[in-house]
Amino acid sequence: MKKRILAAIAAGLIAFGSFNVSNAASREQIAAINVQTASDFQFWNEDSPTKAKIIEFVEDVTNPYSSNYIPPEDRIATFDMDGTFYCETAPIYFQEAMFLHRVLEDKNYTAPKKYLDLAKKIKPKVYAKQKLTPAESKLYFEGLTAVYAGMTDEEYRAYVRDFMQDNETGLSNLKRGEAFYLPMVEIISYLTNNGFQVYIDTACGVSTTRELVNGVIPIQFDRIVGSDFNYTSTNMGKDNPHDHFYDRFKEKIVIAGTPLKDNAKTIKIFSILNQIGKSPVLAFGNSGGDSGMLEYTLQNDKYRSMSFFVICDDTERELGNLKRAKSDTELALKRGWNPISMHDEFKTIYGDNVRRIN
User: Fold this and answer.
1) Backbone dihedral angles phi then psi of residue 205, each to the nearest 5 degrees
2) Which end of the chain is more exposed for a tag (fewer CB within 10 A), N or C?
3) What is the pLDDT of residue 300?
4) Tens digits of residue pLDDT in 276-304
5) 319 lies in which domain range?
6) Model pLDDT, residue 238
């Protein structure tokens, strides 16, 4: 019996360590990532400057004899999600892609005409990576919540779970719920195991983010900061919520359908102040939407701090854009953010059988 158990454990470890036997790392395999020491990293190239910098930083600030020692209660690290540790390029952000699915493909839902017309018009542009007009972008943003009006939070999260089963667009052998950058998940695990409080500070909706990372990334729900839904009650009508008495026997809380309270750029700093209460010593982002968080972290004059910028420059294992990658690298170097080259530093991204297909 003991031999059979040991053999099963060994088989599981072999399957996890050899990505060529599966299409991509499953959510269960991602959840099993556990990096405690420098020798535990598997998914970074040996000569990765990012990995070396992270290890040196952690070993320095967790050493009680170092002049740069940071007490555990002040070891705050913030991560953007889309494009930082989760795919944002297939072809767009998760919740934007889910809007198109909801409006154009969900047979159980009839979209308002303005959103149906919008989705039909912009889908070809989105898939061709063409810029939307300001009017299209505004209506698109409104639709991200409007098409779920009347859903409870759990009903919405169930919808997210279902959409996670869809295949990613433009990448082979990868479901949307598996599209996590394995090297970046290792960083999150390493920091968590070394006494850091890790937060997500993202422009993605909070409920969307919570469902995507639930059971996969070791981050508590109360450490997820994102764009907020507006809610209402099924019995509130035009009442002001400050004055409304909520009757648990007669009503429920549902999504109001009004636009998200967007969490991007400088607002990310406000979110840090309001919901974390301390300045990060590490920050990880990938776009101008993360600039506030990255800059604010480097303004920390109490402790040693660093900011990192993920560059999507891999055109074979990801949907990289070399023109944008060049400008992003230049911006990172100019601002003192450490660029992370997916092409040069990631040994694998999602698993060895995931490749670009368009």
Assistant:
1) -60, 145
2) N
3) 85
4) 999 999 999 999 999 999 999 999 889 99
5) 2-89+179-228+263-345
6) 87
For the sheet with 197-205, list strands across it. Answer: 224-227, 197-205, 76-79, 282-285, 306-311, 338-341
Nearest CA to 174 among 348, 26, 20?
Answer: 26
Rounded-to-integer distance, Cα 249 and Cα 208, Å: 28
Residues 125 and 72 in one domain: no
Q: Rounded mean pLDDT of 18-43?
A: 86
Enter the tokens of residue 38.
């420098």
Written as six digits, the tokens of 254 are 């549902």
**153 and 272 part of one domain:** no
Contact 248, 224 (CB under 8 A): no
> Of 240, 260, 280, which closes a domain?
260
Is pLDDT at 2 greater than 70 in this prediction?
no
Determine the average pLDDT of the residues in 84-92: 95
Query: Distances from the Cα of 81 to the Cαs of 30, 225, 239, 299, 322, in angstroms?
Result: 15, 10, 36, 22, 21
300 located within any domain? yes
Look at residue 350 and tell me if it is in a domain: no
